[in-house]
Specification:
Blueprint (H helix, E strand, L loop, with lengths): L6 E2 L17 H4 L1 E2 L14 E6 L15 H9 L10 E7 L5 H17 L3 E5 L6 H6 L8 E6 L17 H7 L5 E9 L6 H9 L3 E4 H6 L4 H6 L3 E5 L21 H13 L5 E5 L10 H18 L13 E7 L6 E7 L5 E4 L15 E4 L1 H8 L5 H10 L1
Parallel strand pairs: 2-4, 3-4, 3-5, 5-10, 6-7, 6-9, 7-8, 9-10
Antiparallel strand pairs: 1-4, 11-12, 12-13, 13-14
Helix pairs in contact: 2-10, 9-10
Length: about 400
Amino acid sequence: MEISMFLEPVSEKCFTETTRPGKNTLGQTINIYRTEDNFPDLENVQLALLGIKEERGAVDNRGCADGIDYIRKALYQLFNHWEDLKIVDLGDIRTGNEISDTYYAVNQVLTELMKNHIVPIIIGASQDMTYPMYQVYEPTGRLVNIAAIDPLFDIGNDNEQLNSHSYLSHIILHQPNFLFNFTNIGYQSYYVDKESIELMKQLLFDTYRLGSMKQNIELTEPLIRNANILSIDMSAIRAADAPGVKNASPNGFNGEEACRMTRYAGLSFKLSSIGFFEYNPHYDINSRTANLIAEMIWYFIEGFSSRQDDIPTLESTDFVRYNVQIGEGQENLIFLCHKISGKWWMDMSFMKADDNRFERHHFIPCSKEDYDQAMRNELPDKWWQFYQKLM
């Protein structure tokens, strides 16, 4: 498919002289769609930046369609340390007459990128764009995991139209349904009612409060490693570090923690799309938030440059295997640790079923803390939760 019909070139105002000493900025070295007659060649491309100028699905965040150029301007001034990576900027999705037209264009472009094994980095718009990101995976026939760094769950109300606060319910209700797991990272409980928390438990989704994640940010790594899609609501970052969000909060992740999480996303061999949503330049201060998003993208690229296929299979020989018995007469818990990356996994292949859609979900990313918990004769919550899903 010729996806250039859905895209328009990057605005020339994004190209400014760098104010920092040095050579080879991203703006100078990556292939950028700048003119209508010079669409980038996608052969051997690994990463593609994609802007979406859309805000009709935003809830109380008018202006979030205007942030793309600010992010690009900041990103282009950062330096390229990865000579072996082929990165392109495909410009912006052409805004449709109806928002459904924009969703369709996003779906078509992302589908083509996936066919070419290109990981899209999406900027702009509101978080409802997670829905067309999810739909792209439907033709593959595989079950999908989504992780969202978000202070809310975005379930919405019954029969609410698709928007940034209801996209998750639309994903859950979509038929055919191919969502295996949803993970919320950093929800702030004073913004979430008890019924929503209970619903997430009933759906066997993973939800982690902001405080528990900030105590040890490394615990977010296996959560992100388990995702195919990472959707980032910039309101999950505290207002002091990211004021350019209409619904910014005094609490949230700080800038360093945000960059560490996107680096984890880049390292994950499983993750195949990432989106940065809800940035609103009309509330930003000296482009502070645009610069943070640019740095988060930079760290994602850095992680991506070090990716290795460290996902276990039944035939894997690159892992140290640990058998831990919980109680007498119980089945052993099997943990795997990659010999090079040091990443931990739980082996649940003993639950292998005839439905091959579950095959990619028999090895669950975990942390050494989960192994240590098992060694204390305690069943990790993560093990039990996925056991219920695979039953």
